[in-house]
Amino acid sequence: MAGNLTIFQGREVMNGYAAWLKGHPLLWTARVILLCAFLVHTVLALKLAWENHRARPHRL
Asked: How far is CA 8 from CA 13, 14, 29, 53, in A?
């Protein structure tokens, strides 16, 4: 978020930040962590929906 504020410091600063960010290994680390979190979230949501369906197989 702080990096996005470089837009107010001019074009050169913003381009420098973008170039630094593109080559930084933490960017891929963050992407992997976010992807794993998304997958875990999806799996747990499906598991919860399945358990909910098994608890009440017939609707009222």
From this structure: 9, 8, 27, 51
pLDDT digits (tens, 9 = 90+) for 11-47: 999 999 999 988 889 888 999 999 999 999 999 999 9
CA 13 from centroid of its chain's CA atoms: 25
Phi/psi of residue 57, nearest 5 degrees: -70, -25
| Domain extents in the chain | 25-60
Q: What is the largest CA-CA distance in the chain?
A: 63
pTM for this one? 0.65
Other Cβ atoms less than 10 A from the Cβ of 29: the count is: 10
